Amino acid sequence: MTSVKKRKKFTPEFKRETVALITDQGYSIAKAAQAVGTTETNVRRWKVDLEAETGGDRLNNDERAELMRLRRENKELRLEKEILKKASAFFAKEMK
């Protein structure tokens, strides 16, 4: 039988606090990873991701959710506009 390793899930707050150990308190990536019980690779990736978010290169979760909501709304409005166009053409034809 093979044992399946479960991946740990880390909250965004935990990731930000871990990166703060590096940026604010001067920990090395290795020491920060050891202090919080994860791998250096995770900490390095979290740092890159956080820098991309704060630098504006990447959308954060709130911005991503708003973008999805706006895209849905835009799609709905385009559909309504198309329906109104067809209805007005139909009624204009009926008036003749």
What does this structure look like?
The protein is mainly alpha-helical. The chain has one domain (12-95). The protein is 73% helix and 0% strand. It is built from 4 helices and no strands. α1 packs across α2 (29-36). It is elongated, with a radius of gyration of 25 Å. The chain starts with 11 loop residues before the first helix and ends with a helix. The model has no long low-confidence stretch (mean pLDDT 90).
List the helices and strands and how they pair.
Elements: H1 12-23, H2 29-36, H3 40-54, H4 61-95
Helix pairs in contact: 1-2, 1-3, 2-3
Low-confidence stretches: none
Secondary-structure content class: mainly alpha
H/E element order: HHHH
Strand content: under 5%
SS summary, helix count: 4
What profile does the largest beta sheet have? none
**Shape estimate:** elongated
Q: Percent of residues in helical segments?
A: over 70%
Number of domains: 1
Distance between the termini: 79 Å
Mean pLDDT: 90
Round the Cα radius of gyration to an integer and report it: 25 Å
